[in-house]
Structure formats: structure tokens, C-alpha cells
């Protein structure tokens, strides 16, 4: 039974709305607060100074923490103007020990050409767990797997690569991991590997490149269990030919293959501000200045289970809700997204205003309605804040 609606929108100040959500009911917060750039965007993105910005953010981060489940996490977009302040503020609210990552997001690949100095081409996402030991966030994704890393094809058509069975990390050796130093038998002609002697099998022990004793990555019982995933081969190294044992590491494996996510996310992987503007334009129009690309949010979604309850308390043009619907449509997931945005008036003469969208909340709602129309999943709108009457 799919959890519908996929999207819920609350128009109002998030400080009023957040306390109305059930404590512990949210798995993931992704949000993109005003950046304090001093630019005149559709919404008021200007604070007198860092202290004013921090004072605005502190109670809101506390309120986000309240609604997070113990296994949940929060991801916040931020640029150079406030990253240092936000990092300290999040240390204060969530605790330094719950720090997950400071990710560099390359949203402007050409670089900012205005003003003096460097052509800034990135901003950040700061990620903190509610409680690190129970956090469900996996710093890995199925999307990050590159098929080109698996260049070989087996007789039955499955893609794979060879990995040395020998542990190449010097920290692991017969002293630190004695149970992983044992003799295996391998036949480089047939490829067969076993823990006990057989005809044609020669004894092999793991050694480092310099000849010192090493250890295997697999225990003896694991070799007995999966001998067909191992292969004895002759390889040509710097010091001539040698016989060694390799694991056949399959591209497809049960439960899906995951790859650790690096902390630099490129525009070619997740999209850019330009692609984000195009995404919004296709649904509603060019009615918001700096939306985030759905690819950024989808990558964050890929680190949590596909039934996550997601919250974006500074929803802007509704990118997070759009990304949730795209992810559900793509993988059959049952994620739900709660978006909040205040009903700040849009600037007179702006595209949004000319399009009849009098407030930023109108923009959020218009996009989420268009998303429901296009992808399904429905939209529930909650108008509960006095500032929209
Ligand atoms: C940087 S924008 C978010 C953009 C969004 N990530 C997107 O892709 O469109 C920040 C948003 O927060 C909203 N906002 C600012 N203060 C707010 C508050 N106290 N409560 C709710 N929304 C607020 C602004 O109206 C603005 O739309």
C-alpha cells in the first residue's frame, strides 16, 4: 500500500509549523536556508550580520532536531558566507560527535564571474546525524557505481573485475590478523582454488610486494563457502611472472552493489543551478532565482531507506518534494516529503509576481501541484499559519 500523499505542503513560518509535527517523526531533513548573500532575491535573503543570521537559524535547527527520529539525519546547503558559522552552530545544536560530512557541491561549474576574486564554483552541504551510533545514513549509493569499473565478462555473461585476495593494506599482517594468514591451494591452469590440497593445486601463502608475509581478505570458512568466486591466475608483475589468487568481484550482487560516496559532488553527476532553473521552468516557469537541482536531493535520498519521511522547512520552489516524487516514481519507493515555506510576498515586477504568484508559498505549492500532476503521488496542502490570511 503506497504511502500517499507523497507531498505535503505547509505554508507558514517554519518556527510555527515545526512544533506541530510529531517529535521523532522525520527520518531525513534536507534544507537550504536563506544564505545571507545580500542579494535581492525573490525572498529576503539579507540579514544585518552573521549574528542576526545565526539567531534566525538556531531555534529552527533546534526545532528540526526535535522532529528527527533518533536514527535520522539533517543535510543543510550553505555557501561561503555562512559555512563557518553554520558548522559551529550545528556542532552546538547536534553535537560535534554527530558530524557526518561537509560535502563540496559544484553547483556553478563555470564559476561566478561577478565581482572580484576567484570564480567560486561550489557551495557546501553540512550533514549531521541526530545520534551517530543509530544513524541510518549510509555514506554510499547504488547510483555512484560505475559500470566501467567492471570491465570483464564471465562465460555466463555477468560483469566482474579481479580484486587481489591478498590484503594490500600493510596494517593487516600475520601479527595483527593471524587467522587470515594460512595456506591456500590454487591451479593457474584451471583457475581452481581450495583450502585443501588437490591434483594440480600448488600451495600459496599471501605476501606483500616486498616478499614480507601478508594476509588474505577472506577467512578459511568463506573460501570454502564461495570457491567459485575465486580464481588462481598467473600475472606479470614488476619482478616477473607470479601465481596469485583473485576474487571475481561481480557488478550485480544480492541487495545491490553500493559504492562509498566521495565528499565532492560534481555538477555532471547531480546537476547545476542552471539545470535546476530549467527543471523549474519546465514545470512552473522561471519564477525562482536559485533553486537546487533535484539530482542533489536525490543523491542525499539515496543514502537513506526508500520509505523515508523527508522534511524541507525552507522549501523555496519545492525541489525536495519534486526529488522525492522522482525517486518514488523511479524505484517504487514510499518516501513522503513535508515542505514548509513562509508566505513572503514575491517582489513586484519579478517573474513570479508577473505570473500571478504573489508569495513564495504560492511558488512552492504551484510546483508541488505540477509534480503531482506529472508524476502522481498527490499533494496535501495545509494552510495553518496566520501570515497567509
Ligand atoms: C534558499 S531558498 C530555498 C530554495 C530551495 N532549495 C529550492 O530549490 O527552490 C530559502 C527559502 O526559505 C524561505 N524562508 C525563509 N525564512 C523562512 C521561514 N522562517 N519559514 C519558512 N520559510 C522561510 C524563503 O522564502 C525561501 O524560499
TrEMBL record:
Q: What Enzyme Commission number(s) does the record list for this chain?
A: 2.1.1.-
Domain annotation DNA methylase N-4/N-6: ranges: 26-328
The record ties this protein, via SUPFAM superfamilies, to:
S-adenosyl-L-methionine-dependent methyltransferases
Report the enzyme's class at the first EC level: transferase
Note one Pfam family from the annotation: N6_N4_Mtase
Q: Which key words tag this protein in UniProt?
A: Methyltransferase, Transferase
Q: Gene3D superfamilies attached here?
A: Vaccinia Virus protein VP39
Q: Which family does it belong to?
A: Belongs to the N(4)/N(6)-methyltransferase family.
What name does UniProt use for this protein?
Methyltransferase
